[in-house]
Sequence to fold (238 residues):
Amino acid sequence: MNNSVGNTARLLGAGLRALLVLTVICGVIYPLAVTGIAQALFNDKADGSEIKDKSGQVVGSSLIGQSYNLPKQNPDDTEEAAKPDLKWFQPRPSNGLGSNSVNTRYSLILSGATNRSADNGAVNGLCTAGAEQGTLCAQVVAAKDAVVTDNSTAAHTVEPEDVPADAVTSSGSGLDPHISPEYAKLQVHRVAERNGLDVEQVEKLVADHTTGRTLGFMGEPRVNVPELNTALRALTRG
Fold:
């Protein structure tokens, strides 16, 4: 009986010592070491890849997209009913983006793709204006019409064939902060007109914020919309 109690006590003691040691190593030393290394070598990424304006205020993250919409006329309106603020470069279509408009308000709604097939709502294999409402084709057709209308100015007309795919389709996560250089360039004339800037100024802004393929061969060239709009804000406000 005494041996049994003694063995149990020794096992409990060994278990408690192991718990204490592992707690210190895994719960204290390891997190502190990883945090210290991350802060020392990758400070910006470790802090969430924050985007700051010229005053130093955090306005977003370069990893997560934002929408740039006009304030809601009715608080009960859905995000889908919000109209884009055409002073700013617009991101890819997505119901997963929070609303920012380059201010301090940002609320994440959801993340995810539509999971609809490419021919969802197609008529005779084509996406046309006759697509059934609520289908992917209907959304793409409506988005394309809006892109043409919104980005055509008195001095520049956008043709339907100029609209790139990322202007009318969402990303897989719905939170992609990037657009193609083609979509960014398509918006240049509208952004210049709305902000009273020269087209050349806005074109340079886009060029300065265009990133090439990763390591020169992975992915596609891209433009980070939150970063681009933060730079645009600094330009318009001097």
Q: What stands out?
A: Helices lie at 2-41, 43-46, 136-151, 181-186, 188-195, 199-208, 225-236. Residues 50-236 form one domain.
